[in-house]
Amino acid sequence: AGQRVASVATDSDLFQSGIHWSWGNRQKLVGKVFSQKLSKRIIDSQLSQKTWDLSMKLVGLK
Asked: Looking at the 3D structure of the chain, how many domains does it have?
């Protein structure tokens, strides 16, 4: 996982924001990287805030 984070942080081909980068198979260290558009649900700011608030409550931080 650390190697992939470093790739996203340093590889100029992966600098586009607003998308999800995928390697196709999490179990293998190699694989062709490809982008996936984010779903409308994930970019919905109200839903995101509700999810954040619920997460904070469930782990006892709120």
From this structure: 1
Compute φ and ψ for 43, nearest 5 degrees. -100, 5
Name the burial class of residue 32, with classes exposed (0-12), middle (13-18) and buried (19+) by CB atoms within 10 angstroms of its CB: exposed
- Residue 39: predicted pLDDT: 81
**Residue 23: exposed, middle, or buried by beta-carbon count in 10 A (0-12, 13-18, 19+)?**
middle
Range of the domain at 23: 2-58
Is residue 43 predicted with pLDDT exceeding 70?
yes
Q: Provide the whole-model pTM.
A: 0.45
